From TrEMBL:
PANTHER family tied to this protein: CELL SURFACE PROTEIN (PTHR34512), OUTER MEMBRANE PROTEIN ASSEMBLY FACTOR BAMB (PTHR34512:SF30)
Name of this protein: PQQ-like domain-containing protein
Domain Pyrrolo-quinoline quinone repeat span(s) in chain numbering: 51-226
Pfam families: PQQ_2
Position of the signal peptide: none
Lineage: Archaea, Methanobacteriati, Methanobacteriota, Stenosarchaea group, Halobacteria
Length: 424
């Protein structure tokens, strides 16, 4: 990809609201520490913080409607529209999923995933039970459901293990079914008809050895599986349904795939495959996939070297968003400049919260950028810190800024804050 063209600020008026204190991020990326959600109506924004604080604010004024303390670090947010419920995913001792009334903040129900995936065996964040993904939708019988993926990691010498459970909850918090493996789930997506739930597994180092599992949404029974067929334990980065097809970003071979029913391959594209540059083999992981109305977009992450931890070179397709048509032909591509923790989507709009490019450490990468799936770049809002989470609904876009301190600067950039704007 060519050198990125100069960017111009969008002119959108973003409001800011402080979120208190948090330890500055460093040159390398930290784990997920914040979450943000926008109600489908676009009038309510909810933030989740590393200390467990969950706050609902009016999207126009940022006035606080309510604040609660979640049992764990609040790292994921979804909403159940039928009952006007906010659901918060946790990372912590209990791996709690809790539902709160959208108007009052009163807790409606709670489920501790540690009861299934087990408790942390070591006092470090990577060992804590972690609800890594939430997905909501209506099943084939018209019932609104919450789907969740929880996992826990442990290591004993050279032995590494994952314990994970996929859940389907009804709106009262009752478990409809579970699906358990010894692999690490990373993404969920429900098809438009509410009949199938796709689960992407990122790390497979045990008996479960397939990157994509598609389940019947009403029963949790296995419908079909797919895998890139690569060596090693890396498998899938993200999954996204579009009608009867499903887009998959592959960590195994650094390609993007479009699959039909049963996992039949429609096409695949090279995204950031291993490439020789200045005597090194470089690659980047395709971390995100989004499919809608015959278009598919993939977003890649950081450059890595196959044989060393450090490299002065960069893969030409790192930090890139690329959109393809139904036949797998490139429609447009662009740079996102920095690492995208999580892609927010609504219809044909993609919102990328761009954090640091840890190999370049250029503050111009710090921004929230949005794209149209049909035509490409739409706008950018630069921030002093790093954008680590985003949400979008009904033209309202929200992002979380976290402060960052690069190791070779010694100065803190930005603050812990919520930024909200209207893209109308």
């Amino acid at each position: 990809m060519a050198e990125p063209a100069p960017e111009h600020d969008s002119g959108v008026d973003f409001q800011r609201g402080p979120l208190g204190e948090i330890e500055p991020a460093r040159s390398r990326h930290m784990w997920t520490r914040s979450a943000v959600g926008v109600a489908e109506s676009g009038d309510l924004v909810v933030t989740g913080e590393w200390d467990g604080t969950v706050t609902a604010r009016d999207a126009d004024s940022l006035e606080t409607r309510w604040t609660v303390d979640h049992p764990d670090h609040a790292v994921g947010i979804a909403s159940l529209e039928h009952d006007e419920t906010i659901v918060v995913a946790g990372r912590g001792d209990t791996g709690a999923i809790a539902a709160y009334d959208a108007e009052t903040g009163d807790q409606r129900w709670r489920y501790d995933t540690a009861d299934d995936v087990g408790e942390a065996v070591k006092d470090t964040v990577f060992y804590l039970p972690y609800v890594v993904s939430l997905e909501t939708g209506t099943d084939a019988d018209g019932n609104e459901r919450l789907y969740a993926a929880a996992r826990r990691y442990e290591r004993d010498g050279e032995t590494r293990q994952w314990h994970s459970t996929i859940y389907a909850f009804d709106t009262d918090g009752e478990v409809c079914w579970t699906y358990e493996t010894d692999a690490s789930p990373i993404a969920l997506d429900l098809d438009a008809d509410g009949e199938r739930l796709a689960v992407g597994y990122n790390r497979c180092m045990g008996d479960h050895d397939t990157g994509l599992v598609v389940l019947e949404s009403d029963t949790g029974e296995l419908a079909w599986t797919w895998d890139p067929g690569t060596d090693g334990d890396r498998r899938v980065g993200d999954v996204s349904f579009d009608g009867e097809t499903i887009a998959v970003s592959s960590h195994g071979d650094k390609r993007g795939y479009l699959l039909g029913p049963g996992g039949a391959e429609r096409w695949h594209v090279d995204l950031a495959v291993e490439t020789e540059i200045k005597g090194e083999t470089l690659y980047a992981y395709p971390n995100h996939a989004y499919a809608n109305d015959g278009r598919v977009a993939f977003v890649t992450g950081n450059t890595y070297a196959a044989e060393s931890r450090e490299t002065e070179s960069r893969h030409p397709n790192e930090h890139r968003v690329a959109a393809f048509d139904a036949d797998g032909d490139l429609v447009w591509d662009d740079t996102v400049r920095g690492f995208v923790h999580g892609l927010a989507t609504d219809g044909d709009r993609l919102v990328a919260p761009c954090a640091q490019n840890f190999r370049v450490r250029d503050p111009d990468t710090h921004a929230v950028r949005w794209f149209d799936l049909e035509s490409g770049a739409e706008g950018v809002e630069r921030i002093d810190g790093i954008a680590t989470a985003a949400a979008v609904a009904d033209d309202t876009v929200a992002t979380i800024e976290e402060p960052v301190e690069y190791h070779d600067e010694g100065a803190t950039r930005g603050e812990y804050a919520l930024c909200v704007g209207s893209l109308e």
